[in-house]
């Protein structure tokens, strides 16, 4: 028979040898052996019905030692990941990131030095700041979207809004999914990506790098210009296309069309280049439906993969824009960055 003293002693020993494995569970392969040792030590402690005070102290010291080793391993792994992340950054971005880490460490030291009331005030202030920051971001995003829509043709703006609407609907649907539905959705997305990859792999084999004789040369002007504040002007694109035509004998007898989005805008006319605008339509649709004529050997300059796929169905030759523009020196991307040593 187990006495009342033995029962109390057993309850006390179980209290001191509680299962702490969940507190130190990590998913890193480098720390798995230490985690296994720690778990086995706890399991052994729980199986002991009655242990002496000296044994309990010894087991407690072993747990503390394993805990310290786990924490050291996690810190080392965290530092390795941080160094890998820093090595992929440019020097300027790395300096900004390191400043943020230093500020975060200072804030942590400050919080530890404050009392409970000051910490509560600090958390409330940080919460209000986050709400204000998120609101400012939303207003900026809305304003930028309105500016972007104002520059689009009506048809393209309609497509853009429809795309945003579909994206928001997908995001709302994902939030309301169960765990099994999310897994199924993830698998479907993976299969779609594989199908898309096969489609683009077929397209990758059909890009041409050689300028050959054609009856018609079509340049997707906006695609060549690029985007953002540093994009090329229409005059720069038109003048460089004219230089390429004069440089290559194969293109001197070809009809050259350079098409831009939207309605007619200011540009300088150049002999040998027919400049057109898509108006209310999308330039991709104009190229495929109107400019590409059956029976006329045509080459289109673009890097738009969807447009290139549609053109292949029309038996057109396709060439990437920068491959074509760099056949004659003097036309480089204004966003090009020099590779620097980040070590």
Structure description:
The chain is 62% helix and 6% strand. The chain has 343 residues and is α/β, with parallel strands linked by helices. It has 3 domains: 4-103; 151-204; 216-325. The chain has a 5-stranded parallel β-sheet with strand order 3-2-1-4-5, with helices on both faces. α11 links the parallel β4 (298-301) and β5.
* Distance between the amino and carboxyl termini: 71 Å
Give a short account of the largest sheet: 5 strands, parallel
Principal-axes geometry comes out as: elongated
How would you classify the helix and strand content by structural class? alpha/beta
Write out the strand line-up for the largest beta sheet, numbering strands in chain order. 3-2-1-4-5
Supply Rg.
Answer: 33 Å
What is the domain tally? Answer: 3
* Uncertain residue ranges: 1-27, 338-343
Beta strands, count? 5
Q: What is the typical, i.e. mean, pLDDT?
A: 82
Beta-strand proportion: 5-15%
Helical content band:
55-70%
Query: What's the multimeric state?
Result: single chain
* Count of individual helical segments: 12
Order of helices and strands: HHHHHHHEHHEEHEHEH
